[in-house]
Amino acid sequence: MSQHPVPATERFAARTAGMTASEIRALFAVASRPEVVSLAGGMPNLAALPMEELAAEVADLVAREGQVALQYGSAQGRPELREQICDVMAWEGIRADPDDVVVTVGSQMALDLVTRIYCDPGDVVLAEGPSYVGALGSFAAYQARVVHVAMDAHGLVPSLLRAALETVRPRPKFLYTVPTFHNPAGVTLSVERRAEVLAICRGYGVAVVEDNPYGLLGFSGQPYPALRSLDRDVVYLGSFSKTFASGLRVGWALVPPAVRDRLVLAAESATLCPPSFTQMLVSRYLAAHDWRSQVKTYTEAYRDRRDAMLRALETHLPPGCTWNVPDGGFLRVAHRARGRRHQGDAPARDLGPGGLRVGYGVLRRRAR
Amino acid sequence: MSQHPVPATERFAARTAGMTASEIRALFAVASRPEVVSLAGGMPNLAALPMEELAAEVADLVAREGQVALQYGSAQGRPELREQICDVMAWEGIRADPDDVVVTVGSQMALDLVTRIYCDPGDVVLAEGPSYVGALGSFAAYQARVVHVAMDAHGLVPSLLRAALETVRPRPKFLYTVPTFHNPAGVTLSVERRAEVLAICRGYGVAVVEDNPYGLLGFSGQPYPALRSLDRDVVYLGSFSKTFASGLRVGWALVPPAVRDRLVLAAESATLCPPSFTQMLVSRYLAAHDWRSQVKTYTEAYRDRRDAMLRALETHLPPGCTWNVPDGGFLRVAHRARGRRHQGDAPARDLGPGGLRVGYGVLRRRAR
């Protein structure tokens, strides 16, 4: 027997070396400081939920269907919920078959599994600059390399996307995009650019992964057409975390059939199956409550918050600052700042000269 | 632009090629056939749960604590539940700090993440032959190679473990073991061998991953000492799926501090956080109910089933068959069969001559 310089429990995989800091926890650590009003985390406004009705609903669920709700289910998720998810997606113009929906533990799990089935170490993922921090964590976990493509006020810039696809090698596995009410930039990909972005990716043989947790939270009432509504090959990720309740961790992926089978297998080795209990609670909520009105209530609260934030920015920020005016989603603020006082979650070098600098939207409460 | 022979959505990672068949679904497909009494899946006997009390509990949870239960939580899991988990583990002699517990979506997720942080493609995992099918799925997902070590009636055979560690290259990353009420073999690692197996692995610089979903379901009333109770470096996986309710998908890992930080980061990129809702329901159940009596009720039902099964085997199996008599856990049947009529989930070539042949315990109902 030889001596082993590294303890047996610390002989980690190469990928584990990339897991060095938690961006998400850094956000939440700031968010929990009492003097801070954080706009960083995507936490829904649960005060708007009908808690008494939900309490009665969940009690009935356990009393009548406890034998099913508390038992293992299928890896793909419950058929009833997958049908309801298709109804939800129809609001954004998506026509889908419940057979192509895979229920996951939040859309984070869907993104993690999509990365698992697509990315070998060293593979390239294209993403907006800046990108959602949770997505960057999943890409790092699979040792994928992220190449950022800059946005402007109308979202991802098609000419820059084309330039990246011409030059980046190896050919990217997919474009990861939050086209609608982008986190953290607050911008939305214009309707004109949607078809263009899809055509570019198709031309270069690169898949598109559309992450759309905020799509139903538009302030105008008229949803943007999801990329998936324009192209059935788009891998679409959805979530009830923003439109209902994040603590249930119910999200989903809608994928082409050839991808679905792989995704279900990956889901099975990840968690065996999503919790039956939370799925059935979401199903009952969707079936028994006017969830569209609930989403409208949420949305009105977020619009009020946006307006308050815009007034504060106009009053308090120094001259020379500009910002985006998001027309949906959770409030985030992006502004072109001079210097490097405001840093986003994408490395500045990826943004290019004149690129967006995105603050996490953290304002300090002023002493009164 | 060039033409691309593989559709963009099917440019999968190398690991995805290994995801070709679902062992778990094959099991459940057989289990759902009406003429089959399946002993294959580890489904708890939920009829023994106090559903009316649980219904009241969960209604109160939503009504009083809905703002927390339906909101995001921490990636590591709720502190209250992690403390309670330490109390549960104390029943098997484990002394643990709640800081070293990571709550997961079932222990399957814990196993998947442990494999993620340890295994590069081509790394070796040692495991009993045969092994739990769900574990094999996770190992395959990370392109780890599994080398099986045979068991006898007293569990893993130490001399064969030592032989494997002498010969297998690269040096295995860890031994994956279900020492107590093994799935699917039904055998238990004897108390004498526990220290021996730990000493062998320590000597060869190989970590030990103890998967222990059934440990509290012993028929004698006196639990076996968990491997983790003998060695603080053991990576321990636990679950409420067998002792309470599998549909909540609440499991955990107890790991050394240097492993914990990596595991939490891996969990964060996998699902952001486990559902607050299901964690709080488990916490309330543990706090308000006599869960030890509940486990005893479960265990008595499983003992009755074992006895019925043993009577059936004695009556109906042909001469020359022998079988193990499990003294805890869910009923599974292992028998030395002549020929290859009964196949387990480990490839026959890994079992060696005279090795165990393990049936999934599926009996056909006879026409009466």
Q: How is this structure best summarized?
A:
Two copies of one chain form a homodimer. By secondary structure, the first copy, chain A, is α/β, with parallel strands linked by helices.
Could you characterize what this model shows?
The structure is a homodimer of 368-residue chains. The first copy, chain A, has helices at 23-31, 51-69, 79-90, 106-118, 133-141, 158-167, 191-203, 227-230, 241-245, 257-271, 276-288, 291-316, and strands at 36-37, 101-104, 124-129, 145-152, 155-156, 174-177, 207-211, 235-239, 251-254, 322-323, 335-336, 363-364. Chain A has 368 residues and is α/β, with parallel strands linked by helices. In chain A, α2 crosses α11, α4 runs parallel beside α5 (133-141) and α6 packs parallel to α7 (191-203). The interface between A and B is large, with 101 and 101 residues.
Overview features:
homodimer; 368 residues; alpha/beta; 8-stranded mixed β-sheet; two-stranded antiparallel sheet; 12 helices; 12 strands; 40% helix; globular
